[in-house]
Design a protein that fits this description.
The protein has about 475 residues and is of the alpha/beta class. The chain contains 18 helices and 16 strands. The protein folds into three domains: about 1-60; about 65-85 and about 115-290, Endonuclease, Chain A; about 310-470, Endonuclease Chain A (Endonuclease, Chain A, 2-Layer Sandwich). It starts with a helix and ends in a 6-residue tail after the last helix.
Length: about 475
């Protein structure tokens, strides 16, 4: 009996110690009110488990490497080409350009050529074509890289280019690329390429972070041609998966002065991970003006005081006068984004949201559903994609401005992940995205409030349960 009470006493001590250590960490690192309260309640009610979950999923303190990354980015301010946003962006939209400039030294640039790829097979083929033409370097960042037919084809081409003397630098997220094939990496490295994981998972080092992932998708060839958007590397993203079927995603090809911004993102991430600074004209070449599109490259992440992409999303929605159409696989808005959507509807704006009918992540899908009643009751039009997996991430506003990139409309993308994207101050491109949105609607079913209110009790319970974890989804 004495041994039993001794064990209970030690357990109580562990509980108290866990709370004493974890709760101050929550109060220091978590902003707002909802997230800190949720984490504190979890730690108090289930101290050991709650504390463990917080250190794995919730702790986002900017430890020394990320602080160095922030200093590096700030050190580049003023050293990159800039443009006068007021002179090249219309008066109705120049405030959006100013936001990213003030927060992250990202300037709108005139004279770019942009090609949109709503079909992943076409995007994949275009990336391979650009890589085949590489002369000096190939820079790549991806969140997920599969060891399947598509992944092997991509790696084989990179290996071939490395053997030709082209400098290949491949940065992949250590969580998303956890099952990245070692053989393919070995062959690429043997050919002279460099393959590096971003924030490696290591139980014995402070970098054991499930959060703070690199969710960017970037391909850069010779500093002149680039691709970005929402597509990862793998068979499923080319529609070859029986589970998901057709895969709808959005990528873009960029050429022109804005490539300096895309290259900057990679250079910062490479220096952060590899401690190798890339500079000079071979990486930042002078650009011609191959087109007439005004493009502003965006980068966001936990190394920023204020998340740039989240602020630009908010500004774009708040600026809409006629329509704002949003495509996202995961819709878990914070209070500011939700209020902006509500206010847009009150102004008579046509607000449409396109999501997958069946998502690839159970918890995120049901957390998203929690917000459907709120937006439907305000008159937001909700469409659920039925052709396959809808993974596109873009916003089109008033047939004038669009945002395309890797960021979802959820806390993970707008608070925790490293993301990238482009603001397109181009009416033709915005209308092209709206046309693809309308085409997607032909392969989608609309959800109305009456139908949604007839869902079962168990479904409602799943929605409410999953939304409790929305700060980390």
């Amino acid at each position: 009996m004495t041994e039993f009470w001794t064990n209970i006493s030690w357990l109580a001590v562990l509980h108290v110690t866990a709370m004493v250590v974890a709760i101050p960490a929550v109060l220091i690192t978590k902003k707002g009110s909802t997230s800190p309260i949720a984490w504190c309640l979890a730690i108090i009610l289930v101290p050991l488990l709650g504390s463990l979950l917080f250190w794995i999923f919730g702790y986002t303190y900017l430890y020394r490497p990320l602080k160095r990354k922030r200093r590096h980015r700030l050190g580049l301010r003023g050293r990159l080409p800039t443009c006068d946003a007021d002179s090249i962006v219309g008066a109705d939209w120049r405030h959006i350009g100013r936001i990213a400039w003030e927060l992250d030294d990202s300037s709108p640039c005139l004279g770019n050529a942009v090609k949109l790829y709503p079909n992943t097979l076409h995007a994949f083929a275009a990336m391979l074509e650009a890589i085949r033409a590489a002369q000096h370097h190939i820079h790549l960042e991806f969140y997920i890289v599969r060891n399947d037919e598509a992944g092997k084809e991509f790696l084989a081409l990179l290996t071939e280019k490395a053997r030709q003397g082209v400098k290949v630098r491949f940065l992949y997220d250590s969580m998303g690329g956890f099952f990245f094939g070692r053989r393919g990496i070995k062959e690429l490295v043997a050919a002279g390429g460099q393959v590096v994981p971003f924030l490696p998972l290591n139980l014995f080092r402070s970098r054991m972070r499930v959060n703070l992932r690199n969710h960017r998708k970037i391909v850069i060839v010779d500093g002149k041609v680039g691709f970005t958007g929402g597509m990862n590397l793998g068979d499923e993203y080319l529609g070859r998966s029986k589970k998901f079927g057709y895969w709808r995603d959005q990528m873009l090809r960029l050429e022109g002065p804005a490539m300096t911004g895309l290259q900057r993102i990679f250079v910062e991430d490479w220096d952060f991970t590899k401690r190798e600074m890339l500079k000079g004209a071979e990486y930042f070449p002078p650009h011609q003006h191959p087109g007439d599109s005004v493009v502003q490259v965006l980068a966001s992440g936990p190394d920023q005081e204020v998340n740039v992409i989240r602020e630009v999303y908010l500004a774009a929605i708040s600026s809409a006068r006629e329509r704002v159409w949003i495509a996202t696989p995961y819709f878990i808005p914070d209070a500011g984004i939700l209020d902006a959507l509500h206010m847009a509807r009150y102004r008579g704006v046509d607000v449409r949201l396109l999501m997958p009918l069946v998502a690839d992540h159970f918890s995120s899908h049901f957390a998203s559903r929690y917000y459907w009643q709120d937006i439907l009751s305000r008159g937001v039009k909700l469409w659920l994609y039925t052709r396959g997996m809808m993974h596109s991430k873009f916003i089109a506003v008033d047939s004038q401005v669009a945002i395309v990139g890797s960021a979802n409309t959820d806390p993970r993308s707008l608070q925790l992940n490293f993301e990238a994207g482009c603001v397109l101050f181009d009416a033709a491109l915005a209308k092209e995205l709206e046309a693809s949105f309308e085409e997607d609607m032909r392969h989608a079913t609309s959800m109305d409030l009456d139908t949604f209110n007839r869902r079962s009790f168990l479904t409602r319970l799943a929605e409410n349960w999953c939304r409790l974890f929305s700060p980390i989804l």
